[in-house]
Amino acid sequence: MENQEKKKIVLSAIQPTGTPTLGNYLGALKNWKTMANDYNCLYAVADLHSITVRPEPADLRRRTLEMYALLIALGLDPEKNTIFIQSMVPEHAQLAWILDCYTQFGEASRMTQFKDKSEKHPDNVNVGLFAYPVLMAADILLYQTDFVPIGADQKQHLEITRNIAERFNGLYGNTFKLPEPFIGKVGARVMSLQEPTKKMSKSDTNVKGFISVLDDDNAIMKKIKSAVTDSEAKVYYGEGKDGVNNLMGIYSCCTGKTFDEIEKEFDGKGYGDFKTAVGEAVIEELRPLKEEYARLINDKAYLYDCAKLGAEKASYFASRTLKKAMKKVGFIQIDK
Ligand code: ATP
Ligand code: MG
């Protein structure tokens, strides 16, 4: 616990919309683990966010616990850091409403995720989907967060968070810390294995497009082997080689090898050898996570205890910021 107060604050969240993909893992979760030692980290399962796509209630409950178990399986320590389920901390929804009133319709309309997801679910373009970035701003600002480890797809949402915070601070004086994104260099954007110009996404309906971190070894190898590449049969990073570029990025993330080293390694070899090597590297990378998860998911009582502790700790921090914001806006405050 020493220096806990002085450590910089890190917050990030992941939605329980499906099992995390290799993209979530390399773009976000792996960094979560790395940062856990040096920062005061708060990590959330963002279940409030995930009802924008209306999951089955039983599925949502199951996936939320699975996602929570996965976070602990990463090796995160629920005592040392704060690992929580977003809906158990009501301050998120409360601050989100306030911030909604300080977010312009025009700026929220410019979010590319809103446009993408509206196209994916044209029958359910709800106000929650539109206000998603504002809830995300609340998630972050509640904890006076310094850094937010995210994949490149969330960069725009972090910018709007800063804009909302600046606007609020400008009107009422310093209330929220302005957060910085933390985007890893490689793995920041893992692309779909089937459509390598689109990002890999756990809610993709084409399961061949993504590797889930709990896929068994055979499934991983099969999906990598059937990944879309090109007809050139030469392993190098280049324009128009989205499929190969993506596999190189994945391989680099899992092995620590640079793109130059990878090009040399596969000089004169075809895509068959390359894909086998990528598949094996991914399998090895995910093995410890899968083993730990298998152990934890059967211990519901332990997971519930951790979730309760996480929510208490998160709420303790969050309520301080919420109170401050409510006071500034002009809500009456009477001590209980
Ligand atoms: P959904 O399709 O439900 O939005 P998702 O795969 O985009 O699922 P999120 O829960 O929205 O996952 O995001 C969790 C974290 O994973 C975020 O930090 C996000 O930036 C990161 N992330 C998501 N997709 C990728 C990707 N393809 N490559 C790298 N990072 C990613
Ligand atoms: Mg997403």
How would you describe this structure to a colleague?
With 336 residues, the protein is mainly alpha-helical. Strand 4, helix 8 and strand 5 form a beta-alpha-beta unit. Helix 4 crosses helix 7. The chain is globular, with a radius of gyration of 21 Å. 43% of the residues are buried.
Structural class: mainly alpha
* Helix run count: 13
CA-CA gap between termini: 30 Å
Strand content: 5-15%
Q: Which sequence of strands runs across the widest sheet?
A: 1-2-3
- Flag low-confidence runs: none
Overall mean confidence score, pLDDT: 95
Please summarize the sheet with the most strands. 3 strands, parallel
Q: Which descriptor suits the 3D outline?
A: globular
Question: Rg, please?
Answer: 21 Å
Helix percent reads 40-55%
Unique bound compounds: adenosine-5'-triphosphate, magnesium ion
Helix and strand run: EHEHHEHHHHEHEHHHHH
User: How many beta strands in the DSSP annotation?
Assistant: 5
